[in-house]
Amino acid sequence: MERGKQGISPRPLIRTTDAVALVIGIIVGAGIFRTPSIVAANTGSSELFLLVWLLGGAISLVGALCYAELSTSFPNTGGDYHFLMRAFGNRFAFLFAWARLSIIQTGSIALLAYIVGDYVSQLYPIGLHSSALFAALVVVTLTVINILGVHFGTGTQNLLFAVEFLGTLCVVVVGLFIHPSPEHLSALPVASENSTSIGLALVFVLLTFGGWNEAGYISAELKAGSRKMVWVLVVSILVTTVLYLLVNWAFLRALGIERMATSEAVGIDLMQATLGEPGVYLIGILVVMATLTSINATIFTGARTNYALGRDFKVFAGLGKWNTKVSAPINALMVQGIIALVLIGLGAITRDGFQSMVDFTAPVFWFFFLATGISLFVLRKKEPGAARPFRVPLYPVTPIIFCGSCAYLLYSSLAYTGIGAFVGVAVLALGTLFFFAVR
């Protein structure tokens, strides 16, 4: 049992297979059933469409290798927070933790919960704000499960991941081996002309690959030791890339690039064209399960940053308490859940909850992602003598590619999103003022 600045610190209780399920579960969410049509509309050909998805996997693998060096060299429950603190100091690390608590992680939980709420409310409407109520119920339920302990959290994640993985493979089998109904296909609109914008297509592909960086938050809790983080990250990215290529190949074979480009729900169109109404019901369940998997993993890893914040700053000391009985940061989980519920409430008021949360979180997320990539260079200079069980290959080319990708997505998230992006930036600036007030 180890002690940190604020008392008991986490023990290594997470198995390697649990970590892989956690990371893949965060990556493979409902996005794979939403973004392919946008990518298709901006590529124009089947070959280019699949190539962009393969490129997205390659860029994600490059980023994962950078994170593997950081995670194995400086294993810590704080993940990115810890890397940024060592590289840039307390002020910048505080700002990142503030962003995770108020924008990035809680906003992600809220927008994912809205996906579930929007679908379930269509089946079982219970009032004016039924979508928000179902979203809130999801957040409360999964937060309680994680409060019950690390074994409950990872066990739930493994179950959700298994159902999600099998369901996604069913979509692949249906798309590749069941011929679509000509009647259903003829009813789908066909794109008369596709514009080619590889950059925009890649933005959505990389957003769909997002989430693998959460592995850094469990590096100190791996039973096999932090050196296994390389294996966890590489396997997670490779499995996800293969799965995404298979799913998109199934979409292409069943619908064709022209019908995909005009589809608003490519997964529903595929299942309706092959299995009819029962297929629509099945894809709806799959979307919900995929989203629940992502929410649970996001709640699990998000609380770890909040714990690190409380461990290092006295004003947030309540967040830095680790319950050894269940091996979980209970206070951090509760505060995170409350903020997510507040954001869900705001979404109910605007009634554009999902899009608002995307705009709110994206620029801040990519800014700190870029900063973490830069921290690899900084730490190589600041701490050259630190033990590095794994070094990113082809340094400095590999991290330069990763940082360039992050910089481009930061620009895109500011250029292509709405007012919500500037609200997120304003909340981040508020964190700077708060730091000077409490330090």
UniProtKB/TrEMBL annotation:
Is tRNA-binding given among the entry's keywords? no
Chief subcellular site? membrane
Keyword line: Membrane, Transmembrane, Transmembrane helix
Name of protein? Amino acid/polyamine/organocation transporter, APC superfamily
The molecular function GO annotations come to: L-amino acid transmembrane transporter activity
Which Pfam family is one of this chain's hits?
Answer: AA_permease_2
Membrane-spanning parts = 12-33, 48-71, 92-116, 128-152, 159-178, 198-218, 230-251, 280-307, 328-348, 360-380, 392-411, 417-438
Q: Name one GO cellular component term.
A: membrane
Residues making up the signal peptide according to the UniProt record: none
How is this protein situated with respect to the membrane? Multi-pass membrane protein
- State the taxonomy lineage: Bacteria, Pseudomonadati, Bacteroidota, Sphingobacteriia, Sphingobacteriales
Where in or outside the cell is it found?
Answer: Membrane
